[in-house]
Amino acid sequence: MKVRRPVASALAVAGYIVMIVPILFVVATAFTGGETLRFPPEGVSLRWFEAALAYEPFIGALVSSLQLAVLATIIALLVGVPVTLAIHRGHIPGKGLVEGLFLSPLIVPELVVGLALYQQLMIGLRLDNFETLLIGHTVLMLPYAVRVTGASLALADPALEEAARGLGASPLRAFFTVTLPLLRPGIFSAALLSFVTSFNNVPLSLLLQSRDFRTLPVTMLDYVQQSYDPMVAAMATLILAGTIVVAVIAERTVGFAKIFGGINR
Amino acid sequence: MKSRTAALLLLPGLVLLVVGFLIPSLIMLVSPPGVEPAQIFVRFGEMLTDPYDLRIIGRTVGIGLVVTVICVSLGFPIAYLLARSTSRWSGVLLALAIFPLLLSNVVRTFGWLVVLGSNGAIGQALVGLGLVDKAPQLLYTELAIVLGLTQLFLPLAIISCYSAVAQVDAGLDDAARGLGASRTRTFWSIVIPLSLPGIVVAATLVFAGSVTAYTTPYLLGGSSQRMLSTQLFSYASVTIDWASASATALIMTILVFLVSGLSSLVGRRGAIS
Prior knowledge:
The structure holds two protein chains of two kinds. By secondary structure, chain A is mainly α. Chain A has eleven helices and no strands.
């Protein structure tokens, strides 16, 4: 077989190796029977998976991270979808400015936002770290709610809502029976992006940890710093498996490229 | 929609944004607890002249630039091949390029510890082949950070370039080829200029991500290869030096704003010409 574009193909292969191969090594070491993180692994066993699932700090943090991600996603949508409606359907002065304001959490470095919330809300206003995390994650997701559902709303014809209103539907009824169904793919995409962003977040959550409520990625980072055993590889492999499930659901419902196409446009 | 309804719909979001983001960020940047605003600007000035701080700023910007160049030069060919391919594998390969965006940065970066560590795959392979006596130090180097960040941001570069290349009519390639241009010439004088806006977006996202990333420099750079982000964390939680933390945050924020501004300027100029 003759490769038609040798330079581009070689670069592409290099790119895929950098993106994918390290992940395969994580999986390979998770199944080791040995004591340390080394390659090649010594024997095959599930002992590190058992260890990870029995390690309370990981499982506690997993539950915390899931709670936080679900709650923050719901709040971000409840707050963000009305904002999108106001921007696209309302007559408000400075529309571009308002939209820019709601997208601004995407530009400011997350670590900087984390420091600000730690210092001003947790230390200054004495909020507890769960409340601060919830506020921070919700703010971080507002841009997704506004932009991704906004993209759906921009495609929906306002004449449909006007027709419903003209036929005697109340504004609320027109929203729930006409607008909301049109927004469904956008809302689903925003929810998925928000959930994943929150669950995986490190920079914003880093300073907002306490003994009672810790998120999983930060707990794993701390663990790696202390000990060099394959338990983190096992936990990482479990997260990988969960992420594949989420990816398959995303692909089957809205389609991958559509979900992520929405962020960059 | 009445403007009062619109205002009511906006209100909860605005309150959350102002109380949970804008005000805390502004106060932190200019007047953290027990610190005079002037002190921050003094620290800010010191950081731009102190050799130790300058090395960290230089490393952050340098690594950011290198990662940006690598991600665009690997990401664009991938996007181009995927957008122009008619193979049924291209869908799978595109999904494979997007999938890492869903996966935790900790999981993705952790893989490099296994690859680059002293008991890792590369070190053991080199020793096993008899090329070296002792595994070379690959972890906790700038190279490790560059590899880790490239892995992290390549998917973003691919997506941005892909949406740009996909919009360039493949008929233009054929026309140029038909008029006698070589494949290389067609690529450089048709495909690249027309996809430039996407390349600019890709470069901006990768650079901004690289200079603010925390997980990668923390795991792969350690304390010997500090970047602005790991330094900021150390000021905020180890030494509790609010003035230095704010000054570092200010440098990071200015850096990102500068690049975003520059990129939208280039984007606008490109749109006119």
